[in-house]
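The pair is quoted verbatim underneath.

:::
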Amino acid sequence: MRWLAALVLLGTGCVGGAPDAELIAPDDIAPHVRFLSHDLLEGRGVGGRGEELTIEYLAAQLELAGAEPAGESGTYFQTVPLVEIKTQSSSSVRLAGRELEPLTEYVGNNERQTGREVFDADVVFVGHGIVAPEFEWDDFKGIDVSGKLLVLFTNEPPSDDDALFGGKALTYYGRWTFKFEEAARRGAAGVLIVHTDETAGYPWEVVRNSWSGAQPYVEVKPGEPRLALAGWITSDAAERLFQSSPGTRELTLGGLLDAANREDFTPIELGVRAQVDLRSSVVPIETRNVLASFPGSDPTLADEAVLYTAHWDHMGVHGEGDDRIYNGAVDNATGCAALLSIARAFGELASAPARRVLFAFVGAEESGLLGSAYYAANPVVATGKTAVNLNYDGLYPFGKTSDLSLPGYERTSLSATVEALAAEFGLALTPDAHPEQGYYYRSDQFSLAKHGVPAFSIKSGSKYPGRPAGWGDEKVAQYRGSHYHQPSDEFQEDWDFAGIADLARFGFELGRIVADQSDLPTWRPGDEFLAARERSWQ
């Protein structure tokens, strides 16, 4: 096998095909996670002191690993211009004559990036708010929603048919970001997404915490359609709204979701109005991506690259109570630690791979993948010459697993390479346990995929040798329910980083193999990103 020959020729320390367990060890991971999630870094918030400490640490570690700066003017940094929006407490949102309680019943921002937006509008329920011509799906059915407030569900109609929204796996049509974009294109004044744990995949506390502080945005362009109010509403507040409407009074929230899941759904004018007065502070800010690389050794391939990504940011300091620091130990100090360990491993190679190996620690992921989106639009190596993006985000420090998960790998021409390497590592490939939640579209690989780059995350498995069946799923559920996007996502001394070290070694070997392959990878026929890949080669 060509990939096995590459391992031997490049001197991995493999004996009889087994990966070198000392290449990247758990003790290489833990110190980075400990530091990057320390209170000193203030939750790695965008635009503040915590950012400065974080990115300087990452740049220093990359320099120590021997990676060359790949940013602006010979530095390790790429500046990402943003605008910070913070909704003021003097704002008000009234539905059917009742004022909603901020954070408790709704969250929202002014995407138009003005100091104040005021409107009085009809309220319309538009199901999932999706228009998908290729699936012959249209939730708007031709109605004019200009100037109106739209209420809708996140996600998309569930399907077991690959010909309808790709089957069980969520497509981009189901993401809340798409809902805002589509509504803005249609001239709506605002959108409130109905939150349920089932449709969102996380509790209201995650929404509240994510939206309670200042939010970075890419600066709006002149004439670009944006919403005056883009936000979420709790299920309880939504039920009260629907009960106030003659058209939905007899329907439960579940009944409305069932209606939205049908192709014959038609929008429902609720017969009530919304009065919105959204006041915002609008401040230009900057964040930075951290970029470094190792040059390729083949003159014909050195202008191409394998790209590793992880987001360095978390949610900063905000809220009330004794602990207001969102340390982000799992999310995503773990991914940063994995990348730093991979960079060190590349720096210790006796001979460089054929292609360039590029590392991008991107910012503002928690605000909507902004840092990776900026990099994808302003790449160091053209997207058409980027072989693959291997992304690390939110790895679980619960010990060694007998499996790993790589959502999206099967959509690329690298599937056989990935499967062969996993077998060499003795790791089973576990499919995405919750494809309906659309995790693929919620991390930085999506930004690269939109530009055509074959991209996927390397994620923790769920099968822990010596543990009862289901133990790993229970640990993940406990983390997501109690610590995800909470101040309690803090470093724990009893964490076991053996599984994360395995993931880092796997990604190192996979990137090195791809860096030496003669052909650039692509997407499989029919994939939604194939056209972008082909355009990137023109």
